[in-house]
Amino acid sequence: MKQxxxxxxxxxxxxxxxxxxxxxxxxxxxxVLERRPHVAGNAYDCPDSAGVLIxxxxxxxxxxxxxxxxxxxxxxxxxxxxxxTVVANIPGESGTPNQRLQYPVPFNLDSLEIAFGPQEGKxxxxxxxxxxxxxxxxxxxxxxxxxxxxxxxxxxxxxEHVFVHYTMKQWGQTxxxxxxxxxxxxPVFLSRDPRYFQDAYQGMPLEGYTPMFERMLDHPNITVExxxxxxxxxxxxxxxxxxxxxxxDGTVIYTGQADELFGFRFGPLPYRTLDFxxxxxxxxxxxxxGTVNYTVDQPYTRITEFxxxxxxxxxxxxxxMKEYSRAYTGAEVEIPYYAxxxxxxxxxxxxxxxxxxxxxxxxxxGRLAEYKYYNMDAIAARALALADALV
Length: 391
Ligand code: FAD
Ligand code: UDP
Prior knowledge:
Layout: E1 6-9, H1 13-25, E2 30-34, E3 45-47, E4 53-55, E5 62-64, H2 67-74, E6 79-80, E7 86-90, E8 101-105, H3 109-116, H4 118-132, E9 137-138, H5 140-143, H6 149-171, H7 180-183, E10 188-189, E11 201-205, H8 209-217, E12 222-226, E13 234-237, E14 240-243, E15 246-247, E16 251-254, H9 258-261, E17 271-281, E18 291-293, E19 302-305, H10 306-310, E20 318-327, E21 338-339, H11 343-356, E22 362-364, H12 376-390
Parallel strand pairs: 1-2, 1-16, 2-12, 7-18, 16-22
Antiparallel strand pairs: 3-4, 5-11, 6-11, 7-8, 9-10, 13-14, 14-15, 17-20, 17-21, 18-19, 19-20
């Protein structure tokens, strides 16, 4: 059997970035095992049957302030400049329920004027800016604590029209019940900047995410085996890791679920999963923005139209995707997309992390393995840092 110096489970950001650096900079022979039939993890994209480039596991927009991450990934792709904008789509007020309203999310000074009318919206916006400062970002939970009755009324409006129903759909819980860092990702923004992110580097890999990963993993020291469940070939017992029944003392980087690695012995970690409803339509364009959030009604949270993101020019056809969130049950077809961060679940995760620490050559890395809500750039940064330590 071929000898490997390092074993990496998972070919998403965590796996691909560490594989490349161990192979290239440390000259290690790296085996990457990936359960899915493709690389790129949840960032995987591919053309659908109509030829529209879609994101199979939900819309992925790259954005970062971390120059090192941007530079590293830029070795494997050029970028299409894309600044993501999102609008909330809500039913009109009681007299005109069929006339829907759209305004920018993060809720900003323009949203305020659309919601409250130009004059009143401007006056309220000035008041918010006087209270918090221009271009400031204020989380909805913070805004709700403001004692000024007019600001409290704005906070109630935004809470009701942007946050509470969307968050109930996404998490099955209210904004107060979930980790406050989650709603803080989309603060009220006292600005007229309509962009979803303000990061220095934003864009989409020019030919897509999958080719970027294929290039990253294309190295003579890297072997990728697709469609392989690593847990069928790994055994962990008494501080020793076995691969294919033989002790393996090389580096092991595991980017899957921590609970699954240890046979769920302390019980399963809770997650939210998503069902994606793809629809291909015979028209050039379906909606005004890359993503439209349905923050008040509809069973889905948001609709993404991929052509806005990718800039693909394909007349007469477009593909959209609706996202439906629900509890992850562990069924084989389900994918655990979001860790549910709270003290109880973090404590359960810590038990698995303690077990992992008994294996000196084992590293848990990634959104699943670390049970965290990481964006792509955060995982790439963590992968670079782990590689720094190992190379
Ligand atoms: P993953 O991409 O999940 O990769 C882990 C890989 O390990 C998977 O391919 C899995 O199949 C494999 N694996 C697991 N267990 C095994 C096993 N036993 N054997 C073999 N292989 C195994 N981030 C952004 O920055 N911008 C966005 O716009 C954005 N949008 C998102 C939208 C959605 C709906 C979701 C769910 C996430 C989004 N993210 C976004 C986050 C992004 O997906 C993650 O940060 C990133 O994918 C994490 O990379 P990873 O390598 O940790 O995990
Ligand atoms: N959120 C909301 N309404 C919105 C957008 C976001 O209530 O219109 C809340 C919701 O709880 C969501 C969280 O903010 O889960 C983070 O949103 P983000 O768009 O960052 O989620 P992701 O793209 O990671 O699913």
